[in-house]
Amino acid sequence: ILAFENFLLLMVVIFGLQFVDRSFGPILPLFVHSLGADGDRVPLIAGILFSVSAAAGAMGNNLAGPLMRRTGARLVIASACGTAAAGVAGFLAAGSAWWLTLPTAIFGIAIGSATTSAYTAASSIIPSGARGSGFGLLTTASLAGLAVSPIASGLLGATSIRAVFLVDALILGSLAVVVSRLMITAPLPPPESLPTEEI
């Protein structure tokens, strides 16, 4: 299964996207507080930002299909990773907690689109007889990112909270470059052959 066209690359992409996405959990409330928000308002502001990210991610999920049919998986994934990197970089320029709403929305739309596109591209190259094993490997990559990210971001955040966002931006930028250079393009299968359930 790992030898399938683009499959290993897409596993790396899914790991990287999950790693970056989950790094916000332990760090964002601390970052909001460091920007001068009152202690009593930090949970509210952080909760709003997480909600904005989730809603924007849902929008990105819905945009992925039409974009892939129009431009192809490689361009969508690479562009979405680059856009997500720009969104995370916006955190580094933040002067107030409420200013984070804009880069959070940009990041959410991009990460949602990239994740859905990566899963869709991977599903299109897995033969029907290997779907269980294939999706098991994709889920393993996702769960590995989920498990490693909070620990790594916590350790890095103990040194510098902004360094977490810098590393996230570098990871997303690297994914954009790698996908644009290494991913082999192939026609997207018709919509009726794509999975209808979100992974």
Strand content: under 5%
Measured as a percent range, the helix fraction is over 70%
Task: Give a short account of the largest sheet.
Answer: none
Stretches where pLDDT is under 50 for at least 5 consecutive residues are 193-199
What global shape is seen? elongated
| Class of secondary structure makeup | mainly alpha
Spatial separation of the terminal alpha carbons: 18 Å
Helix-strand string: HHHHHHH
Q: Using DSSP, what is the number of strands?
A: 0
Q: Can you walk through the features of this model?
A:
With 199 residues, this protein is mainly alpha-helical. 75% of the residues lie in helices and 0% in strands. It is built from 7 helices and no strands. Helix 1 packs antiparallel against helix 7 and helix 2 crosses helix 3. The protein is elongated and about 55 Å long. Mean pLDDT is 86; it is low at 193-199.
Tell me the layout of helices and strands.
Layout: H1 7-22, H2 24-34, H3 42-71, H4 73-92, H5 101-123, H6 131-157, H7 161-182
Helix pairs in contact: 1-5, 1-6, 1-7, 2-3, 2-6, 3-4, 3-5, 4-5, 4-7
Short descriptors:
single chain, 199 residues, mainly alpha, elongated, disordered C terminus
Short description:
The protein has 199 residues and is mainly α. Helix content is 75%, strand content 0%.
